[in-house]
Every structure is written in structure tokens, then in C-alpha cells.
Amino acid sequence: MHEITKDGWIHDQDNVKILRKENGKDVMIAKEKGTDYYRKVADSKCLAGQKYWKENAAMWKNVRDKWQTVFNRKMDLNLENRVNKKPLYSYLFDLKADTPKAETDKIIDSFVKS
């Protein structure tokens, strides 16, 4: 649950993490329970993030657009954990601001199992 407050927001968690086995049995492997409090800070403390977003927004839009295309297929979605020993986020975080859409599409396609 998320609750917006005048100073930020509260994130209350009560989750169970399961390992879904091929034989159909679910095994609980962890519980996540707790409350996190987030307080909004002055925008001036976020200049590095604002700069990054301004420079990289177009590349991340390409990533979001590709995922929307994948989701629009309305099919089960299974992903590779790693491609060439690297997780998806590692590929995406290594991209430059001017990475062409064809390249971001290719990376995501390499993780989507047919």
C-alpha cells in the first residue's frame, strides 16, 4: 500500500516471495513485511537525477515503447534471466542517450522468450 502524505509518502509492505516450481508446487522462500517512510527533499538535492533524465529521456521512452509493444501482444511473457551472463538492467543502464531505438528493441527482444 502507498499513502501520499503532505511531506512525501508511506510504503507499507506485506508480501510473500514464492518459488514457482515446474511441478506446480509453490514454495515460500521469504516474507517481506515493513513500513518505509519517504520524505520529499528539495529539488536542489536532486540535480544529478534531473540532469540524467533530461539527457536520457528519449532513450528511456524507446525502452518504454518497446515494452508496450511486447505487452500489447497479450501473451504470456517469459524472460531470460541473463543473456551472455548479463541481466537486462545491466544492458539498459550501459546505454548512451543517443542509442537508436533499433538497438534498445534488439536488447529487449534478446530477453523475451518466444
Strand order of the largest sheet: 1-2-3
Mean pLDDT: 95
Q: How far apart are the first and last residues' alpha carbons, in Å?
A: 34 Å
The overall number of domains is: 2
Sheet with the most strands, sense and barrel status: 3 strands, antiparallel
Low-confidence residue ranges: none
Write down the overall geometry.
flat
Helix content: 25-40%
Order of helices and strands: EEEHHH
The strand count comes to 3
Which structural class should the secondary elements be placed in? alpha+beta
In angstroms, what is the radius of gyration?
Answer: 19 Å
Helix count equals 3
Strand content: 25-35%
Walk me through what this model shows.
The chain has 114 residues and is of the alpha+beta class. The chain folds into 2 domains: 1-40, no CATH class; 43-114, no CATH class. The protein is 37% helix and 26% strand. A 3-stranded antiparallel sheet has the order 1-2-3, with no helix packed on it. Helix 1 (47-71) crosses helix 3 (101-111). The longest helix has 25 residues, at 47-71. The two termini are 34 Å apart. 1% of the residues are buried.
